[in-house]
């Protein structure tokens, strides 16, 4: 097998590692491409291309994350990961771990970790690399890596919800939620929202949004009840999709362009949070991006009573 063939076979895994470390589709793709350039020009003949390339993409991702952390400190408003519609890497034996680790909630928890802790957690807990390979990837001793893994796991466990929804129940509840929005069923909508549900958004200062967010079941229901019918009137569509391994949706304008994405957190039979990504810089990998300000103005025009 040629180097190019080895790399193409491992590309889905390399992207999956990089995305979980970086929380950015574009940065992950760049890290994977840089890994190929280094592999292509290297004289090394690794015994395990998988271990070698995983180490390379991990080191690149750690360096990128360190500089990204500085930029995120100056980010306007809330920062959410770039939405991922489909994870290119599949492993039936670890399907649950892979889906959970790519959720918006998990990626936001990973933001609490240092870059080294995050890389160790991703390699060890998500992809089950042995400690020797993790140590080689991050340039630390096995003992140091074990300590990093313990710290990272503790931080992640502290932030996880105590009870997680059954996947089938979660998907069924999400379907009912989107049906209620489509049908304008206000009572069904309110019943599906947790009392303390949060509707928050990442606009990056580049799209209209609802201040710091909408909080509480009654308030979130009111916003959805008032905005979604108007969104439909101006040709907007809501397309249920899996976003970051969880129930979600892509919202499109009247021309079919991507306006934003929603990702739902569902626990205890209720929707606990709706995270929307509106920053156009984070949506380009999903297709042509809508002008959110123009859509907002269209909605205002529909609301405005005729003169």
From TrEMBL:
Signal sequence, renumbered to the chain? none
One Pfam family of this chain = Sigma70_r2
Q: Where is the RNA polymerase sigma-70 region domain?
A: 7-69
Tell me which stretches of the chain form a coiled coil. Answer: none
Q: Which UniProt keywords apply?
A: DNA-directed RNA polymerase, Sigma factor, Transcription, Transcription regulation
The keyword Transcription regulation is assigned to this record: yes
* Segments forming domain RNA polymerase sigma factor 70 region 4 type: 105-156
Q: Which GO terms describe its cellular component?
A: DNA-directed RNA polymerase complex
Q: Which family does it belong to?
A: Belongs to the sigma-70 factor family. ECF subfamily.
| Subunit text | Interacts transiently with the RNA polymerase catalytic core formed by RpoA, RpoB, RpoC and RpoZ (2 alpha, 1 beta, 1 beta' and 1 omega subunit) to form the RNA polymerase holoenzyme that can initiate transcription.
Q: Which NCBIfam families match?
A: PRK09636.1 (NF007214), sigma70-ECF (TIGR02937), SigX4 (TIGR02957)
Q: What is this protein called?
A: DNA-directed RNA polymerase sigma-70 factor
| Organism (species) | Naasia aerilata
């Amino acid at each position: 097998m040629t180097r190019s063939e080895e790399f193409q076979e491992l590309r889905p895994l390399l992207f999956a590692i990089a995305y979980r470390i970086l929380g950015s589709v574009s940065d992950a793709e760049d890290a994977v491409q840089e890994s190929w350039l280094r592999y292509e020009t290297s004289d090394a003949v690794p015994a395990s291309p998988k271990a070698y390339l995983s180490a390379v993409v991990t080191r690149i991702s750690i360096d990128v994350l360190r500089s990204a952390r500085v930029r995120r400190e100056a980010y306007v408003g809330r920062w959410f990961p770039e939405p991922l519609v489909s994870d290119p890497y599949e492993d039936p034996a670890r399907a649950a771990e892979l889906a959970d680790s790519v959720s918006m909630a998990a990626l936001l928890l990973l933001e609490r970790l240092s870059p080294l802790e995050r890389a160790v957690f991703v390699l060890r807990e998500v992809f089950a690399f042995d400690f020797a390979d993790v140590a080689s990837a991050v340039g630390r001793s096995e003992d140091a890596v074990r300590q990093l893994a313990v710290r990272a796991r503790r931080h992640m466990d502290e932030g996880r919800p105590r009870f997680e929804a059954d996947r089938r129940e979660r998907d069924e509840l999400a379907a009912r939620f989107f049906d209620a929005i489509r049908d304008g069923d206000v009572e069904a909508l309110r019943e599906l929202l947790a009392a303390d549900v949060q509707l928050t958004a990442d606009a990056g200062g580049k799209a209209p949004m609802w201040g710091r967010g909408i909080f509480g079941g009654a308030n979130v229901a009111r916003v959805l009840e008032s905005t979604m019918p108007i969104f439909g009137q101006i040709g907007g569509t809501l397309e249920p999709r899996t976003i970051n391994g969880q129930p979600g949706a892509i919202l499109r304008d009247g021309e079919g362009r991507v306006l934003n994405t929603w990702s739902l957190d569902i626990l205890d039979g209720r929707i606990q949070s709706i995270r929307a990504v509106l920053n156009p810089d984070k949506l380009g990998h999903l297709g042509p991006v809508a002008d959110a300000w123009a859509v907002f103005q269209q909605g205002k025009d529909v609301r405005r009573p005729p003169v």
